[in-house]
Design a protein that fits this description.
Elements lengths: L4 H16 L11 E6 L4 E5 L12 H11 L5 E8 L8 H8 L5 E6 L5 E5 H4 L7
Parallel strand pairs: 3-4
Antiparallel strand pairs: 1-2, 1-3, 4-5
Length: 130
């Protein structure tokens, strides 16, 4: 699946805005995510940390929860923006995304122009499925 240049720019801009709203007082590692549905809607999320790290919500899962809560179940792409180059969704986020099929994953870092573009299937080969 090829991502149109307009969708690419729109999705990254939404993830950058979500990153600014992230709540990361402990790690200071703010992450923003934006998921593009096949219907063309974008849903966003920022990571939400908790003093008990295990209760922290990743930005990707926040964005997916927003989309699913709005009745969206098919995703075209997901973008994440972090403060570190080369960061990709964690394993738990990869599995949550796999629940809704394969999609394009865009990974960008704050203040950098380079964007890594991958397929979810590359990041999570042989995902668990029923």
């Amino acid at each position: 699946m090829k991502l149109a240049p307009a969708d690419f720019r729109r999705l990254l801009a939404a993830a950058r805005r979500a990153q600014r709203r992230a709540y990361a007082p402990y790690s200071r590692f703010k992450v923003g995510a934006a998921v593009l549905t096949v219907s063309g809607k974008i849903f966003t999320g920022g990571n939400i940390e908790n003093a008990s790290y295990g209760l922290t919500l990743c930005a990707e899962r926040v964005a997916v929860a927003q989309a699913v809560s709005a009745g969206q179940r098919r995703f075209k792409a997901l973008a994440i923006v972090t403060s570190a180059a080369g960061a990709t969704p964690c394993g738990a986020c990869r599995q949550v995304l796999a629940e809704f099929g394969d999609c394009v994953i865009l990974c960008a870092a704050t203040g950098r122009r380079q964007v890594q573009q991958l397929r979810l299937a590359e990041l999570l080969p042989r995902a668990f499925r029923f």
